[in-house]
Amino acid sequence: MGSPSSFAPFYVFGARVFTRSSNVRLSTSRLHLNVWSSVRSTATKLFLTLSLFIVFSLPVYCQSTGSIEGQIVDERGAVIEGAEITASCPSIGVKRVTTTDDVGRYQFASLPVCDYQLQIRAKGFKEQILQSSRVEVAQRLTQNFQLQVGDISERVVVASTNNLTEQTTISVGHVIDQRMVHDLPLNGRYFLDLGLLVPGTVTAAQTGFSTFPSRGVGALAMNTAGNREETVNYMINGITLNNMVFSSITFQPSIDSVAEFKVDNSTLSAEYGQNSGAVVNIATRGGGNGFHGEVFEFFRNDALDARNFFTLTSSQPPPFKRNQFGGHGGGPIIKNKLFFFSSYEGLRQRQSVDLNSLVLSDSQRASATDPSVIKLIALIPRANFIDSAGTPRFVGSARAPVRVDQWNLDISSNLSTQLRRLRDPQR
Known about the structure:
Blueprint: E1 7-19, E2 23-27, H1 42-57, E3 66-73, E4 84-89, E5 94-99, E6 105-111, E7 114-121, E8 127-135, E9 140-142, E10 145-146, E11 155-158, E12 172-176, H2 178-183, E13 201-202, E14 223-224, E15 233-236, E16 239-240, E17 258-266, E18 279-284, E19 292-301, E20 320-334, E21 338-358, H3 362-366, H4 371-377, E22 385-386, E23 392-399, E24 402-414, H5 416-423
Parallel strand pairs: 3-9, 3-10, 8-11, 15-18
Antiparallel strand pairs: 1-2, 1-24, 3-6, 4-5, 4-7, 7-8, 12-17, 13-14, 15-16, 17-18, 19-20, 20-21, 21-23, 21-24, 22-23
């Protein structure tokens, strides 16, 4: 069986939200090694450095990864023991090698999301190559092979297979892949809105605390498979993103930082816990061997807006301007070994919110005699509009600006080659 992946990422995400009525800052926790300054021995510092390197070089099980497994047989259906299988993804520099066991089975665990090429070699059989096998987030893909008798120098190339059934799990879920994430138009660019494409998922009622869409932030929960919105567990790269107080997603990552995500809404695997409802497993984007980047700007204003029905003192729509802008870029720091990816997204929204409230009439104001009540009445605006029923109203507008800044940095290293050489110098 194949050893777990040694694709070690370092991921930092931050968000800052400013509105007229709130000042909320959201960011991931940071690891502070305050003991370092108190360590004076050089040998102790070296020991700590090596210990940290070993810890962070261990297989990372908490990533939003997938796996490939299967069985290799000959033309008569007999299992082939000791066949060598190589899974490689040149775009991110990942290459894994394993051999089949005594029943002809193999497994590649904890594979990063990518299109993999599978190469199978066995003595006395033709070499077989599967050019493309897509591993999606939280997917356990089964790929079985039947080798033909012949010289190992002969090669059989298969472009792709149509067997995409997960035969090793009973979980019911749906993947929103990278193409859907980046190509589908989204009003507000809230990735959670794409979750409505998953069967069994509906827009949550706006009466809940987390389902009410906030200006510049969007709704922070959804309903799937008949569960309440508070029962959904949101995970980003294998780490929970839930607000532990309200059981909603802490913040919505920028759509440019999301590679793909999967919603498992029933019969979950034992590896998931914490919540009784669905699991939203988010895989973020990372760098690769090629440089890539993008900048964007989305602009909306009130030029084509209609007047609000309740704006009774003006024939013009309320002022509205929205600028959503940013960019992302990634590439290699050291080819096939160390990669980076970073993105930034900003939102600047200038908006006036219509006000239409019932207020006291002048006669009602004059009838007050209690000194405390008179002081409170002074805080209530006077009526500036009388409707057709003779009811006094205050009609106006109030500014409601929104400022949001989101950024992320992903540094990933591929240590599998170095670890493989340490484990097996002959290879």
